[in-house]
C-alpha cells in the first residue's frame, strides 16, 4: 500500500480592495473639478494675453510708421560746366601739347558722358532715354509719404465670451466738433439780444405780464426740481447742480427774484436731506476696496452732497462779497441797487444753516462769515446774525459749536481793537455752561458703586441675570462719565476764552461801551472763575465802582459780580465787602422811578446775594437800614417795581426776625434816624418805623395793597394775613417781571376833569 505524503500548497492570500466612501469620492471629484476649472481659466487668460499682445504690437507698428519721418534719397551736387572745364584743363600738361590736340581733347571732354553722368545710375552710357521713363525715374526719386490718419481714442468695453474664449471689445470715442459748440454758444447771446429788443418795444402792462409769465415758469421749474430731490435724494442728487445753476440767472427781467427763490429753496432742501453725521473724505485704501452696490451708491450720494453744499456756500459768500465791494458783474443782469437785497437773503440762509446744521461739514466756515457780520453797520443784518448766534449757543448741548463760535468772537474783538457793538458780547450770555473742570482727587472722580437693595434682590432674577444687569449698569455709568468728562473739558476751554475776552477789556478798555456787557457776563459766570484771580478781580471792580465814571447799571453789575465771586469759592477768602454795601445803599435813592426802570431786576438780585445768602455775615443794623430805605424807595417807583421791593422786604423780615421792631412805634436805643446818611451801619435805623406801609396800603394797585397789608400784619406765613402759596414761593425778581408795566392787565384809574361845583368851591 503506497504511503500517503501530505502535499502542502501555498495559496496567495487574496486581499479585497475596499470601496471608497461617498465623502472621499465627493472630495476627489471636487478637486478634479477645481483643477479643470483652473486649467480652462488659464487657457482663456493665455489666449486673451496673446490677442492683447498682438493688438499692442499692431498698434505700436502703426504708430511708429505714422510718426517716423521718411528719409530723402541721396543725391550728388553737380558742379557747373564751366568749373568742370577749368579743372580739367588745369589738370592737363598743356605745355607739351599742340593746339590742335588740345582742341580735340576739349571737344571730347564736352562729349564725355562718363564724366558728367550720375554714377548712381546703372544705365549704359550712350543708351537713349525713353520719354516714358523720365517721369517714372523722377517719381521713384521723390520721397514717399504715407497718408497719416488722426489717431482716435478707443474706449474699452466689456468683453464678449465665445466658445474660443473672451473677445475684447472697443469703440471709438465720439469727437464733438468745436464749430457746433461755438454755434450753440452764440445762439443764447443772440436770443438774449432779441428778447431785450422785444422788451423795449412793449408797453409797461405787457412787460409786467411777460415778467409774471416768466416768473411762474421759473417757480414751477424750481418746485419740480425740489420735489424730485426730496422724493429720492440718493438717485436725484445730480439735480442739485441743475437747481444751483439757476443762481446764475441772466434774464434781467426776473434775475433778482429767481436768485432769491433758489437760495431759500436750496437752504430748505439741504436742511431736509443732510444726514445727522459729518461726512469725511475717503482714503485711497478705502477707495480701492470693492464694496456692495448699496454702499457705493451711498458713497456717491455723500460725495455729491458735500460738493454741492460747498459750491452753494461759495455762491452765497460771493453774493455777500459783491455787495460789500459794490462789484458789478459783466453780465449786468443784476443792478448794484439790488445787491443789498440778495446779500440779506444770502446772510439769512447762512444764519439758518448755522443753527440747523451745527454737526455738518463747513460749519466753521459759516460761523466765520456770520460772526463777521455781527458788527455790521446795517442794523437789520447785525441783529439777524446776533440772533442766530444766540440760538446756536442756547441749543448747543455738545459744546463743540459753542467753542468754535467763541474762538471766532475772540478773534473779532481783538482784530477790531475792542471797537465793536455791545450786542456781540451780549450773545455770550446765552452760553449753556453750568459746570467746569476742577482739579479733584482720584477718589472723587471714581464712580461710586451702587449695591442692590432688598426690593431688587427680591425680584425673581437668576444669578446670571443679576450679573448681566450689573455689567450693563456699569457700562452705562462709564459711558455717561466719559461723555460728561469730555463736555466738562470743552466747557472749561470755552469759559477760559470768554474770561480772556472780559479781562482784556477790563485791562485795556475800561472806558469802552463794552464795559456793561463785560460786567454782566462776569456777574453770570463769576462762580466759575478760578480762585487765583479773585483778589485781582475784586480790586479792579472796587476801583471801577469808586471811580464814579460808571452809570448806575454798570456799578450795580460790578457789585453783583463781586458778591457772586464771594458767594461761591470765595467763602474761604477773608474779605469784608463793606464798601460795596455802602455803594448799593447810596445808589438805591438815585434809581430811575419811571416805567423804563430796567435796573430794578439787578437791584433785587444784589439784595438777594448780599443780604439773604450772606445772612451770617450781615449785622442787624445793616439789615434794618436796607429795609427802611427800600420802603422809602417803594413810594416813588411804579407798581411793578413796588411789588418787587415789598417782596424783598418780606424776605428780609423772614431772614432777620428782629426786624419786626420797625413795625412798632417804640424807640430802641439812643440817637435819631438819619435818612440822608449813606452809611447803613451808622444811620440809627432802629429808631424809626415803616410808616410807608400805611401809605402803600391805600395804593390803587391791588397787589401793592395786598403786600402792604401783609407786611403790616408782621408778614405771617400762616393764618388770615398770609399770602397764597404761589405768591409766597416767588422770588422778588420774578414778581417784578410778572407785574411789569408792559404786561400789566390792571390799569390805574384816570382822574377826570373836576365838576363845576368843585371849581366854584375852589374859587370861593
TrEMBL record:
GO terms classed as biological process: DNA replication initiation
Name assigned to this protein: Nucleolar complex protein 3 homolog
Source organism phylogeny: Eukaryota, Metazoa, Chordata, Craniata, Vertebrata
Family per record: Belongs to the CBF/MAK21 family.
Region (Disordered): 36-89, 171-198
Primary location class: nucleus
Native source organism of the sequence: Astyanax mexicanus
Keyword Coiled coil set for record: yes
InterPro entries documented for this protein: ARM-type_fold (IPR016024), CCAAT-binding_factor (IPR005612), Noc3_N (IPR011501), Nucleolar_cplx-assoc_3 (IPR016903)
